[in-house]
Specification:
heterodimer; A: alpha/beta; B: eleven-stranded mixed beta sheet; 11 helices
């Protein structure tokens, strides 16, 4: 059997406008307080118990979405047709440990019916979809250490399709991991876990777009070791880029599957020459 | 982007309560056999529901060393089996390293399953992040020597349909030459059985396991959990045709939407699910009247089955009485994250065998559900176009159109 001829990729690079973003880091002890005011947006209609059973990462992720919504300065109904991708990292570790303890003490009856729905990989995207009334596709991506690479890969395919008016990408994770040993009641605990979250509101780049652009490319290449000197994508560094002032002209990372992702200022791509973008890859700032 | 690139399914690998090969599953589906039993993998004496569709021992794929899999979890073994046998079935196994071969794996609770299994075995991985398992997707790529992009996707019961859609898109974009897509789930565990049982979502017909999963029946009382997986090899039709590959069916259309209503309860508003079905049919450039078989999501819950019937009424309208519908969950149980993928097999069986798998245990059809049931026995029927619905927790509605090439 012969191998098929390799067809040239139809779209090796996908660009989208970052209409808005949200990014935050929250110590584990401070997450409980966020549950009761999940989405302080004037057009949100969520009860204070909406996030009662949600995982900690879902809570922080939704807050990041709320930040982006405020920057969007739009009615929530305007994003109803969008899609949502949620990329948590090791979701449910702390809650499952508690569930195991209750199972040992109380048997099957001690297991909350909310455990699986709110700790599965789709829980973050499903909750955001529900909170924003989004009726486009929603699903979880990744779930482990490669969540960032995976969610950009999936997002690029959806954005290249051109069928969605917009797409939310939400990435969350703890550093260090929120393990069962951590107790919010202990004031002298070792390094407190911090949950980071970033939310991007992406749309097809409009004409004369100014602001940030997200580009994803190189996904047609075979997986290969990261070139020397090229930073591997970590979404915590994406938070740094999004929150840095003044805005950086361009930042690019290597994805673990051979592709790459870049955040750029749009005006640099629309006919305005800039050495950092126009020259070879090495001159672009590689985020460490 | 060339959206008209036809994408074929050329290989199938699976492990389910109805067997560990496409042929075995096809035979059992058309024979109307149930794979549901009293659970024997762990102590269920305290669980309100003690039945399920379990997978028998997962074989070791050809060309793999059994001793190398000795330390693998059941989910790891399942994933490897399904992927490897799909590639072997498609004829890509010897050449898998020579082509851009991608992987889209539907999996919903990989880490929860690993941590729980480890804890019951006396381990502490849940508390030791540095000891966490290698991610399934990464492990599969390494062991199978895949060099294309690889991702995990999760939309609960709808995961498999999202995986097929994503793989199809990658092929259309030219990012891969061949792509594995499907879903695997071994979430039949003490905690998940307890959780779903306490949600009062499971059938408690413990005295009649094979009769418990009864979608559309008046006396249904909840779903029956199952486990297993199915992976498919997808490739562009032109290349598959050139190499003389077998075509199980064409992935002709995909549709997806969200209820945005509740994490668990189906929405009383059918519009998003209706939209997903219509989107899939439009994507396939087909009219509802051209559909020869619908594999329903129908899980045997009092609320969900009726909700889906309303969706089918809206989509098919006057054609509904002539469109055969069945739910193969009556035989397999509900394989959760793997449900959509395994039910795609049922559609491929219908296309290949020109026969419709039944809804078994349908002795007293619910009068609120007026569908053209394939009740209790398979029947011969010309089939060129099939539709498979999967509606997942988190409010995901998906539909895939699989048709004869």
């Amino acid at each position: 059997m012969s191998a098929p001829s390799l067809s040239a990729p139809v779209a090796d690079e996908v660009a989208s406008a970052i209409l808005a973003h949200g990014a935050l880091r929250v110590p584990a002890r401070d997450i409980a307080a966020l549950r009761q005011q999940p989405l302080p947006h004037p057009t949100a209609r969520l009860s204070t118990s909406f996030l009662k059973h949600a995982d900690e990462q879902t809570v922080v992720g939704l807050v990041a979405v709320g930040q982006a919504l405020e920057r969007l300065d739009r009615d929530i109904a305007s994003v109803r047709g969008w899609g949502v991708l949620g990329a948590p990292r090791f979701l449910g570790r702390f809650a499952l440990a508690e569930a195991l303890r209750r199972f040992a003490d109380e048997g099957a009856w001690g297991i909350s019916p909310h455990l699986i729905p709110h700790r599965s990989l789709h829980a973050l995207s499903g909750t955001v979809s529900q909170a924003l009334g989004i009726q486009g596709p929603n699903f979880g991506v990744g779930g482990g250490p490669d969540a960032g690479t995976e969610v950009f890969t999936v997002a690029a395919a959806l954005l290249a399709d051109g069928c969605l008016p917009g797409l939310w990408i939400i990435m969350t994770g703890f550093e260090p991991e929120l393990t069962p040993q951590f107790s919010t009641s202990t004031s002298d605990a070792p390094t407190e876990p911090v949950c980071s979250a970033v939310a991007l509101a992406l749309v097809p780049p409009p004409p004369h777009h100014s602001g940030r652009t997200l580009r994803i490319g190189g996904l047609c290449r075979r997986s290969s070791p990261t070139p020397a000197g090229q930073a591997v994508f970590r979404w915590e560094s994406l938070i740094d880029v999004l929150t840095t002032q003044p805005l950086l002209p361009a930042t690019r990372w290597q994805l673990s599957n051979g592709g790459w992702v870049a955040v750029e200022l749009a005006e640099r791509r629309v006919g305005i020459a800039h050495p950092a973008v126009e020259s070879a890859e090495g001159s672009m700032r590689n985020c460490a | 982007m060339n959206k008209r690139t036809a994408v074929w399914i050329t290989g199938v690998g699976a492990a389910t309560p109805l067997g560990n090969s496409y042929a075995a599953i096809a035979e059992n589906l058309l024979a109307g056999r149930s794979g549901v039993r009293l659970l024997c993998g762990f102590d269920t004496s305290q669980h309100p529901s003690r039945i399920g569709g379990e997978v028998s021992a997962i074989p070791c794929p050809d060309d793999c060393q059994p001793e190398a899999l000795g330390s693998f979890s059941r989910l790891q073994r399942l994933t490897l089996w399904c992927c490897a046998t799909a590639l072997q079935d498609a004829g890509w196994w010897p050449k898998r390293s020579d082509t851009r071969l991608g992987l889209v794996l539907g999996t919903g609770a990989e880490w929860l399953v690993h941590w729980e299994a480890d804890a019951f075995a006396g381990g502490q991985r849940i508390a030791q992040p540095l000891e966490d398992n290698e991610p399934l997707v990464r492990q599969a790529c390494r062991l199978l020597q895949l060099s294309g992009p690889a991702v995990s996707v999760s939309a609960a019961c709808a995961s498999g349909n999202y995986a097929l859609a994503q793989a199809r898109r990658w092929l259309e974009l030219g990012w891969v030459d061949v792509c594995l897509a499907g879903a695997c789930d071994m979430v039949m565990t003490p905690l998940s059985l307890a959780g779903f049982g306490n949600l009062r979502a499971l059938s408690r017909r413990n005295d009649d396991p094979q009769g418990a999963s009864r979608p559309f029946d008046r006396d249904r009382d909840g779903f029956v959990m199952g486990e297993g997986g199915a992976m498919f090899v997808l490739e562009r039709a032109d290349g598959a045709r050139r190499r003389g590959a077998r075509c199980y069916g064409e992935v002709a259309g995909n549709g997806a939407s969200s209820d945005a209503y509740h994490m668990v309860i189906p929405s009383p508003h059918p519009e998003p699910a209706i939209a997903a079905m219509r989107q899939a049919l439009e994507d396939a450039r087909l009219n509802p009247q051209q559909v020869d078989y619908v594999n329903a999501h129908a899980t045997s819950t009092p609320v969900g089955d009726v909700a889906e019937a309303r969706v089918l009424e809206a989509v098919f309208g006057e054609a509904l009485p002539s469109v055969p519908v069945s739910s193969t969950k009556s035989m397999t149980g509900h394989l959760l994250t793997a449900a959509a993928a395994v039910e795609a097999i049922a559609c491929l069986v219908a296309l290949e065998r020109q026969a419709l798998p039944p809804t078994i245990n349908l002795h007293h059809p619910d009068p609120e559900i007026r569908l053209c049931h394939v009740a209790n026995q398979a029947r011969e029927h010309p089939v060129r176009v099939t539709v498979s619905n999967s509606f997942g927790f988190g409010g995901s509605n998906t539909c895939v159109v699989l048709k004869a090439a």
